[in-house]
Specification:
This protein has 102 residues and is α+β, with helices and mostly antiparallel strands. It contains three helices and four strands. The chain is globular, with a radius of gyration of 22 Å.
Length: 102
């Protein structure tokens, strides 16, 4: 005689990362590239003017990173503000990489 236990099924729900139906979730990267036509000061001042929480001193440090590395991620966050900051930086003449998801 054999006795078998009923099979149990457990469902584990993972937390939702973004809202239902939202293809815009996750972080987006705004990347500024080095170029030969923007001055160091213009890049630093533009970053400080456009990006929230970036001081002129921080703008100079980021501009230095752009100059030395060829590019820098200057802001990361939701897609809508990322697009807004990207457009403002692009309008100011900075050389922009396409928005990156990540």
């Amino acid at each position: 005689m054999s006795i078998s236990a009923p099979s149990l099924s457990i469902t584990i729900e993972k937390p939702r990362i973004s809202g239902p139906g939202s293809g815009l979730g996750g972080n987006w990267r705004v990347i500024v590239r080095n170029d030969n036509h923007n001055t160091f000061d213009h890049v630093a001042q533009t970053l400080a003017r456009v990006l929230p929480g970036v001081s002129l001193d921080q703008g100079h440090r980021i501009a230095d990173q752009i100059h030395n590395s060829g590019q820098a991620i200057v802001w990361t966050g939701p897609r809508e503000p990322a697009e807004h900051y990207w457009e403002q930086l692009d309008s100011a003449g900075l050389t922009m990489a396409p928005l990156e998801r990540g």
